[in-house]
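Reopening this one. Same input as before:
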Amino acid sequence: MKKLASFLVSCAAALSFVTAAPASATILTTPWQSGNFSLATADGTAQVNFAGFDTSLGTLLGVTIKYIVNETLTDTIYNFNSNAVTVGNPNGVSATSTITATGPLGLTTVTQLTTSPLYAGLVDGNGGNPFSTHTITNTVSGIASPVNTLNGNPATLAAYLGASNTVSIAVNGVGSQSGSLPPNVLNGYSGSANGVVYLQYIYDIPEPASMALFAVGLLALTQLRRRKS
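Same output, byte for byte:
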């Protein structure tokens, strides 16, 4: 009985040692998935679909999103007066485009483009036509959004689980205009964009729990050998 009691105490000590040891895991990332999108107007929308996380790889810890966009944005000033007028005083006239890529559970990244330079100056009279115009157009390629990560665990990130599951990322454009304009003068925006959305999963591979069982088994064999001797 004393030997059995000693054996049980030794096993308990071995288990407590393994349990007390700091847990370690290997943090990995999946290759980037990518999908193209196109917005025909500054207020356009698109959807890009990705595969969910393959749970056979390990435990999902986070989801990362980013995109790169090529965009053309135009601000047009319309003068309905017969005479030339000054616009942009005190605030220069511009148009702004905001593009947002949004995934489940609030995963979001945003870019913003404003026509440059802000316009302040004369716009010709309409010359007998309904209106005259002055336009400012910017075309910018390779605008990179911030790289944003949504951290969590399989319970909080359930919307991203399952290799056969489809994860949809919505891409939305919103335009606006601003600036100081005199009476009978308006401005408006137009534009288009195209780009690529990227999605990546962060996961870990924990140390196998069998390490503890292995330690106990090894200790048990040692005790048995001592008993036989």
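So the earlier flakiness isn't reproducible anymore. For the record, The helical segments are 2-20, 210-228.
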